[in-house]
Amino acid sequence: MSDTISTASTWGRRTLIALVLLGAVGAVTTLATNSLERDEESSILTHRVSRGKLQVTVTENGTVESSNNEEIKCMVKGGSTVLWVIETGSMVQPGDELVRLDTSLIEDNILAQEIIYENALANKITAESDVAVAEKSITEYLEGTFVEERGTIEKEIFDAEQALKQAELSYESNLRMAAKGLIKPLQLQGEKFAVESARKALELKQTKLMALEKYKKQKELQTLQSDLRAAKARLASFDASLRLEQARLEREKEQLKNCTITAEIGGMVIFPSMADWKSTPDIEEGAVVREQQTLLVIPDVSQMQVKVGIHESKVDRLKVGMPAKIELQDVRLVGEVSEIAEVTKPAGWWTGNLVKYDTIIKLQQHEGLKPGMSAIVDVVLADHQDVLTVPVASIVEIDGQFFCWVEERGRVTRRLVRLGDTNDEFTIVTAGLSEGEKVVLDPLAYVDEAQRQAMGPAKTATQDAEQGGAAAEKDAKTEDVETSGEKLVKPDAGT
């Protein structure tokens, strides 16, 4: 009777230990329920090695967004203050008002600029008049003043020539009279001086005409042309100033128009998404916004995508075109990887100090998708068919090599294995095990040898195999692995 009670108590304790172990390897043992077996004489949990398919996925949380967003930006130079903004989620049509910004400062600028513009316009008008006057002055001189001065001098020359002739005739007459003794020599001398005076007067008038035509005309013309060029230069300056002030005035008027923002396309209006680690408030009445700041977004709901952050340990396996499964509340969709960021975002406390790369998952068109929806994304990194797999919990790493403990004929023996790809629950075995064999789950908890090997000094695979017993050495799979001369390595994520 006491033996029965002792046996029952021992069995109860072992059952309790098995239940605790079952909780520790919950995910693995749950998935492997159909292949788990319990030895009748012990509480060791085992898994029967079998062939099947193994899908390697990476699961991340993401956010639904549109790949084509119409961004509504503040185009007011220097920024402004929001007087009114439409509610997020509102449906709008082209031309509907979205945001109204403060116009008081811009209106003052327009008034001041209009004054400056009118002054510039007055300066230009004056300069145009100066140019016209300068051009007329040249024409006036060439066709009027010069002709008048030349005519006056020519008349003076004509008069001087006539005076010279009269003086010469008088002198010749007096000369004949002096020969007859009718006049005195002194009087004849006076007549001679009169002739010389008339000749000098004629030469002076001729010189004056030559100076007018050769020097004075050119000098006056050069002065007038210089005045014309200066007047044209001032006109060009005032014209450029006027155009500059006009452009400034037009820009100010354009700024006034930019204070009222309307929709160019129809759709749902939402606030732009902010970075997770920021606490930037949404646009609201009274908020000060800067130039080129995105105020609102109108997404194209016909082109939706999911943005997720993939951990750096997995991103190397990602390829554009890989299939993905997306879960959105009660909706499940399929998509594919369309874009992988080349540069990661800075890691910090807001990301749990994890380095992740933004990855875009393109979605199929589906009614009801809205920006900002939370999504769970499973990206299929590999899909293996008809492969030999064992639970991750059955593998122990010792000195960089991997071992399983196999239960056969009532004994548990160690087996050196070569591993392939893994999905963190099951691992592909490429050598060392055969289909149908039973491996011990969590050997560190049940197998003393596994505990000693894991806690004791590291040994090479060759030394351990020599001390492992004849049973392991005779195993055909193990002999193939050990005699192949190949070095067993950690599972290759890219296998």
Key descriptive features of the protein:
disordered N terminus; alpha+beta; 495 residues; four-stranded antiparallel beta sheet; 28% strand; rod-shaped; six-stranded antiparallel barrel
What does this structure look like?
- This protein is of the alpha+beta class.
- It is 43% helix and 28% strand.
- β13 (323-328) and β14 form a beta hairpin.
- It is rod-shaped.
- The two termini are 58 Å apart.
- The model is unreliable at 1-41, 274-279 and 458-495 (pLDDT under 50).
User: How are the strands of the biggest sheet laid out side by side?
Assistant: 3-12-15-14-13-16
Strand content: 25-35%
Residue runs with pLDDT of under 50 for 5 or more positions: 1-41, 274-279, 458-495
- Helical content stands at 40-55%
Question: With helices defined by DSSP (H or I, 4 residues minimum), what is the helix count?
Answer: 10
Could you tell me the radius of gyration in angstroms? Answer: 54 Å
| Rough outline | rod-shaped
Mean of residue pLDDT values? 80
How does the major sheet shape up? 6 strands, antiparallel, barrel
In angstroms, what separates the terminal alpha carbons? 58 Å
Main structural class: alpha+beta
- Number of beta strands: 21
